[in-house]
Amino acid sequence: MSTSEGIKVAPIEDTSLLAFYRDMNVPERRTFWACASGWALDGMDFMIYPLVIGTIIAMWKVDPGTAGLAGTVTLLASAIGGWGAGYLADRIGRVRTLQITILWFSFFSLVCAFVQDFNQLLVARALLGLGFGGEWAAGAVLMGEAIRPQYRGRAVGSVQSGWAIGWGLAVLSQAVLFSYLPAQEAWRWMFAIGALPALLVFYLRKYVEEPKIAAETRAKLAKKGDSPALWEIFQGSIIKTTILAALAATGAQGGYYAITFWVPRFLTTERKLSIVGSTGYLAMLIIGSFIGYLVGAWLADKIGRRNLFLIFSLGAIAVIVAYTQLPITNEILWLLGFPLGFFASGYFSGMGAFLTELFPTRLRGSGQGFCYNFGRGIGALFPFLVGWLSTLTTLGNAIAVFAVLAYVVFFLAAFALPETRGRILHADS
Fold first, then answer.
1. What pTM was estimated for this model as a whole?
2. Angle value at C-alpha 171, between 188 and 339, nearest 5 degrees
3. Residue 11: what pLDDT?
4. Gap between the terminal Cα atoms of the chain
5. Structural domain contains residue 305
6. How far apart, in whole angstroms, are the C-alpha atoms of residue 199 and residue 176?
């Protein structure tokens, strides 16, 4: 089956959410669980800082804008790490690059537990970000190439749901540690727990194989003495795709980070909840996020990647305005946490498959790594900008302004890109 542009696509025969898993062979399932675990631990590592930011502000007497800068620096570094890891994945392989990036961000999460002032924390989070961004780039390409095209959206999207599980683990760790330890100690243990992803490398080394299509492409290019250039994604016909995909990723991540980075602080300041008391509100947000990832994964193959992005970006705008601007009770706020998590997360389920399908195999790591992590880099400004604007207005207003702006960019860029659902990938010669 082909599109009007002559691109071969696979028919979607079984549209149920778990069809891909039932049909997986053993290597595919091992890759699936390895990447899902990586996403979960990646999410846990990143979300630790937003959860302890209130303690950091109080302990080291930093203002919200400066505190938000650590989140921004992490994401800016992840943009560099993601592009670099994507390029490396095209040169030395997806699996090997994934191992390197996991070890990197696990080590620097542990370093964060021993810093003595905010400047040291800033440097440690920046170094952590290099591996954090690289892990997504390598893992997303690995999954996208390992799964058959008719199931790619659901499989990659289901892996993305691991982020919500990691977020939940971070919140659970916060609830336990801050209940039994003084805040001055609990935040350090939070970062120490973030070193656990290093254990995943042992599984990767033993059980996960390099995708055949990637190995074949590297072998063909090596035989010809050819290798992909770092800047090749900005040349010829591919540059338009690179620019639009980078803008879509910017809007998607800018909105997400504007919300998730500051909502814990929003709950404890403007809604007057304690750290432990806010756990239930964050739990509802996380549950909505997890369900959103799964529904988004199903919709990515059912209605296509572009339609998923368009619908969820509009839904996210509506819910974040209601969550931050309407004079509602805490009970209603708790209920709104579900749709907020649902719409602010679910579109990511289509992002990995979409970027995989937009680029040729020889440039897939570089293209996917750059676009997604360019989005992280620009989206990285949003935690800082929200913190800065919150010094001039309420935190709720600041979150709403930048989240809405980001989702408008996401909507427009997604609208301008082609649909890629079911696109068949080929080894490049």
1. 0.74
2. 150
3. 53
4. 22
5. yes
6. 22
Residue ranges making up the domain that contains 329: 27-208+237-416
Rounded Cα distance, 77 and 230, in Å: 18
Return contacts of 223-228, CB within 8 angstroms, 24+ apart. Answer: 227/91, 228/87, 228/90, 228/91, 228/362, 228/363, 228/366
Whether residue 17 is contained in a domain is answered as no
Would you state the pLDDT for residue 76?
82
DSSP state string for 168-229: HHHHHHHHHHHHHS-HHHHHHHHHHHTTGGGGHHHHHHHHPPPPHHHHHHHHHHHHHT----
Q: Is residue 389 part of a domain?
A: yes
Whether residue 318 lies inside any domain: the answer is yes
Residues of the chain with pLDDT under 70: 1-15, 221-222, 224-230, 274-277, 426-429
- CATH number for position 122: 1.20.1250.20
Apex CA 368: angle with CA 292 and CA 23, to 5°? 55
406, 382 contact by CB (below 8 A): yes
Report the number of distinct structural domains present in the chain.
Answer: 1
How many angstroms separate the CA atoms of 141 and 366, rounded? 10
